[in-house]
Amino acid sequence: MDARLAQLPLSAYAREQLSARLIRLEDEWVRCAKHTAADSVHDLRVAIRRFGEPLRLFKGLFRKQQRKQVRAELRLNMSLAGRARDADIARDSFARADIELSPELALHLSNERAIAESALRASLAAGLGSGFGERWRETLGLNGESSWPPEGALSTNSTAPNCKRSNLWLETETAAANARHMLPALLEQFCKAGERLARGGFDPVSLHALRLEGKHLRYALELFRPIYGRRMDDLIAAFKDTQTRLGDISDATATTAWLKNQDIHRTPEAQQLQVFLHQRARKLSAQFVEYWRDHWGLPAFRQQWVHYLARYAGQAPTNAVKRPQPAASSIEAAVPGPDEQTSEQDRITSEGSPSTI
């Protein structure tokens, strides 16, 4: 747990986290611009999400027009990267189903990937040519010489994204106080959404909304990881596992829709794949029902994490073992780092189609 970060005002904490995530995004942007292989595209999408989540969570700290401008660029590049990823997932799905592609269908997939790759490269090159990182720092007021938040940006109506309650960020309180105030409510909201779907048996298509909500929550947890103890890594790992399971289901349903959008769903190979994907989605959904019941569906399981989030932000346990502190600007929130141990009792990720930033 980083005591310095925990005691920062919310605005200062948000600024540090945004700045660190923008540096990581710049690195992944350059890497993907040079080589748009599947892993580079995946890493770019993750970096975009990690940078985009604070813009959602802390939207009251930005002027609306400036925030919308940056988010529009994020959405564009996420969409283009998503198009390349969709082609990769489709090809992988044919391989997983052990379906041999006709020369015509193989050419179609290759052409679609090439078109998507070309469009993504062009957009990334344009971003680099315009110095997107520095532009965004200036637009969002993240430069060291700028006052932040920008004058007039703070809003007393800054609420957590999609939160059904009227909980507000405590803009005059510390980052730790805000984490204890908001994260438990976001976790409870996710569990309630899952419970509503569980009553219907977890239809494969309906699980997409739960996956998106869980994805936002996971990145929010990562955002506040530096001010919790090592047990936060267990919670993030649990969400990774949940997201992997949901991502596999989403890949199956999204690929079925992609085949239709590409107008190749009537080919013999695509029809065979659709049968495979339908069966896979149903099987994985049934497995997810059991997984949910044994994890987030258990009141004791989720309440221990609600309790943890509500109590331990910025709190160093009395039996802490002193270890070197991580760098303040670290954004590898999901990777276990040196921190204090706690005595309390107690796996992104397969990414699917482009999601809202």
What count of helical segments does DSSP give?
11
Distance between the termini: 28 Å
* Inertia-based shape: flat
Fourth-level CATH superfamily: CHAD domain
For the record, the CATH architecture stands as Alpha solenoid
Q: Helicity range of the residues? A: 55-70%
| Global mean pLDDT | 84
SS-based class: mainly alpha
CATH hierarchy, class: Mainly Alpha
Q: Strand-and-helix sequence, N→C?
A: HHHHHHHHHHH
Number of domains: 1
Beta content comes to under 5%
What name does the CATH topology carry? CHAD domain
Report the uncertain regions.
Answer: 154-167, 318-356
Number of strands: 0
Main sheet specs: none
Using brief descriptors, characterize the structure shown.
357 residues, mainly alpha, CHAD domain, 11 helices, flat, disordered C terminus
Write the layout of secondary structure elements.
Blueprint: H1 3-6, H2 10-34, H3 38-57, H4 64-96, H5 103-129, H6 132-140, H7 175-198, H8 207-223, H9 231-261, H10 268-294, H11 299-311
Helix pairs in contact: 2-3, 2-5, 3-4, 3-8, 4-5, 4-9, 7-8, 7-11, 8-9, 9-10
Question: Could you please describe the fold and organization of this structure?
Answer:
By secondary structure, the chain is an all-alpha fold. It has a single domain, classed as CHAD domain (Alpha solenoid). It has eleven helices and no strands. It is flat, with a radius of gyration of 21 Å. It starts with a helix and ends in a 46-residue tail after the last helix.
Summarize the structure.
The chain is mostly helical and 357 residues long.
